[in-house]
């Protein structure tokens, strides 16, 4: 459920929760005074993430390097010659 924070000139900040992310969420009516309010944008709060979660996300960004032994001996696919199903496609 996405949440958006808005700034009312009279009442201050308030947060609204929406069922979908579709539509224009740049402005909303204040729930107290019904004035049109603009959306407030915040940077993501990454500093509050736990270290294990942060390191898992960072590890997921790069593919893990593996040796041929780790992949196994059948890891290299064997390419088969294409079967010729049409006589005019002969060659190569």
Automatic annotation (TrEMBL):
Record domain Putative regulatory protein FmdB zinc ribbon: where: 1-43
Disordered: annotated span: 56-92
Coiled-coil annotated spans: none
SMART domains found in the cross-reference section: CxxC_CXXC_SSSS
Biased composition regions of type Basic and acidic residues, renumbered to the chain: 56-72
Pfam families named among the record's database cross-references: Zn_ribbon_8 (PF09723)
Protein name: Zinc ribbon domain-containing protein
